[in-house]
Amino acid sequence: MKRIGIVPRPNWQREAERLGLVFHTPEGRTYWDESACYHFSLREIEVIEAATAELQRLCLLAAQDVIDNDRFAEFHIPEAAWPVIKQAWEAEPPSIYGRFDLCYDGVNPPTLLEYNANTPTGLLEASVVQWYWRREAMPATDQFNSIHEKLISQWGDIKPYLKGDLLYFASMRNDEDAMTATYLRDTAQQAGIATASLFVRDIGWNGGRREFRDPEERRIQSVFALYPWEWLLKDFSGPILETYGETIWIEPIWKMLWSNKALLAVLWELFPGHPNLLEAHLVGPCGMAEFVRKPLLSREGANVTLHRRAGDTATDGTYGEEGFVWQAVAPDAVFDGKWPVLGSWLITDRGPAGIGIRESDGPITDNLSRFVPHHFD
Amino acid sequence: MKRSRSVELFLVVSAAAAMTGCSSERERCVDGNNNIVEDRNCQGPTTGVYHWYYGGSSSGGAVGSHVSGGSTTPGAGDADSATSHGVIGGAGEAHGAGGEGHGGGGGE
User: Fold this and answer.
1) Residues A85-96: what's their mean pLDDT?
2) What are the beta bridge partners of residue B84?
3) How many Cα atoms occupy the beta-carbon half-sphere of B51 within 13 Å?
């Protein structure tokens, strides 16, 4: 694994925009960064792929443990949702994707930083934009990337289980979320599913008919929501739980068990010392001299405290009311003074599908981190 | 290995063309006096005075300038409908954004 400085394509902004990456330079800061790329050996890619499959196996076992032992309180999940999560886990409703965030230095085994199993983004960048970049900038190399075809294939399998005439794709209004949802909608359409887009705020509830409706008063029976379950429960709690069995929500509600960082502590409890896991606890540092304290539900690196012997580094934000997890500090993976994190995509029932790399100037990956493409040979 | 791999886009391309062209209604983050502030104030769980303001016009459009003629809600709903939109739990999209990427959405 190497970081290589390269010259960006002269027309890279136009190329990125053409492929839907209209948010390549938000507020004047580079987000899509092709002034560098990461090079892997085939062996390293195989290590990442195997670790991703292994972590998915462990996470399935961890979720089963939470379900079997009613550990929802450790995840601070509202009690009204517990039976619905259990039913959804047993019924196995449609699911499409998730992204493991891994620390990897090319030498030590990849370790799990967190699992973005509910609303992962960076998808269009990983699946499409970096593939076109490779074709033009590194045509003699390959890339760990079959995300696009696996998505289409998984939508094809899901199609018979959808309800109603349309699968809705709901997101917030910002460019990144709207375009990520549009991309997923594109892949669903290519699998032969009839689709529509709407904003989450336009999902309506008809109290008389006890059903969700779109702005044209059509009943919503199947919906992909790029909107975290803890927010869906805050916004629509009664109606969504009451009608969960009649509506297909993608991702399913049981993903609350994976997108919550309490998962990290459950994993360590069940598989202590596993090479792809970092020590993690819900009650405190438990003797770890150095640790990272993360809120159970924060996004984009907010409210994270990195405690090292030399001192603390912290990010601010508005998360943390649900509690924290204390996680061991991952081995330093620093290249040219940059800190990459591998986002390893898992397409449901299709397995590991590829990676996208986010690079930061410091040890905490946050909303300023840049997407840097990769290749291997 | 160098697989040949077909990655085709349809909806994304047309959506991208629309987004990079002229937007019919733009949104701005404003304070309680409808003065434009940085977008990040409206991203993440919003508390206090900052909120999105849709449409309208401002002199210059830069942070600090005043915006008027728009609305705090995007578009106009059907007031006669028995369906309530975006107010079910009172929160609507008060959380900022939904994905977990780089930009303060609901994704990451």
Assistant:
1) 97
2) A205
3) 17
What is the predicted pLDDT for the residue at B76?
Answer: 34
Residue A179 in 3-state DSSP? helix
Q: Is the pLDDT of residue A55 over 50?
A: yes
pLDDT in tens, B22-39: 344 567 788 888 888 887
In the numeric block, which tokens belong to residue B77?
């709903």
Pairwise CA distance, residues A103 & A325, whole Å = 17
Contact across the interface for B85 and A180, Cβ inside 8 Å: no
Residue A54: enclosing H or E segment and its boundaries?
helix A42-68
pLDDT of residue B100: 60
The alpha-helical segments, DSSP class H, found in B1-105 are 11-20
pLDDT confidence bin for B90, thresholds 50/70/90: very low
Indicate whether this model's pTM tops 0.95: no
Q: Residue B43: name the closest of B108, B99, B103 by CA.
A: B103
Of residues B10, B74, B83, nearest to A186 (C-beta): B10
Q: Cα–Cα distances in Å, from B10 out to A21, A186, B15? A: 14, 6, 9
**Gap between the Cα atoms of A8 and A33, Å rounded:** 8
Q: Name the minimum distance, in Å, from the CA of A246 to any CA of chain B.
A: 18
The answer to whether residues A98 and A263 touch, using CB atoms and an 8 Å cutoff, is no
- Name the closest residue on chain A to residue B82, using Cα atoms: A206
Q: In chain A, what are the domain boundaries?
A: 2-141+255-260+332-376
Provide ipTM, 2 decimals. Answer: 0.84
Report whether pLDDT(B42) > 90.
no
Contact of A40 with chain B, judged by CB distance below 8 Å, is answered with no
CB contact under 8 A, B108 and A299: yes
Chain A residues in contact with B105 by the CB 8 A cut-off are: 121, 171-172, 174, 176-177, 226
Q: CB neighbours (10 Å) of residue A13? A: 16
Q: Which residue has the tokens 């160098």?
A: B2
